[in-house]
Amino acid sequence: MVNAPRVVLIVTLLLVANTALASLGLLPGAVQLVSGLGLVLVPWMVVVVLRDTSVTIRDLEPGQEWGYQDAGHGVPRPASEATSDLTRPPAAGAGPDGDG
Question: Do the domain assignments include residue 33?
Fold first, then answer.
């Protein structure tokens, strides 16, 4: 199995280096070659990421219309916990002058 994070890193670094070389006007032949390869590398990278099974994604619970999961964070927080820090009351002793 292909390591998805490694593929993303390699393709990204290759394309960033290609952009730098093109901006500086260095190695025009290499820039053209990598630009052409980018047409194959980027779709290949997308396929590798979509086929990656290293992160398990849970199905939606009954009654859920949508869900969001970050890699390594598991299941989304329940709605009761999904409040913004701006609407959450300050913790006890946490004053504006930093004395808490």
Answer: yes
| Nearest Cα to Cα of residue 2 among 47, 39, 40, 43 | 47
Residue 74 lies in a domain: no
pLDDT in tens, the chain (100 residues): 688 999 999 999 999 999 999 999 999 999 999 999 999 999 999 999 989 887 777 777 787 777 666 655 555 455 555 555 555 555 666 556 555 5
Q: CA dist 53 to 2, 5, 56, Å?
A: 10, 12, 7
Phi, psi for 37 (deg, rounded to 5) = -65, -30
The total number of structural domains in the chain stands at 1
Helices (H), the chain: 4-24, 28-51
Residue 21 is part of which domain span? 4-51
Query: What is the pTM assigned to this prediction?
Result: 0.57
| Structural domain includes residue 41 | yes
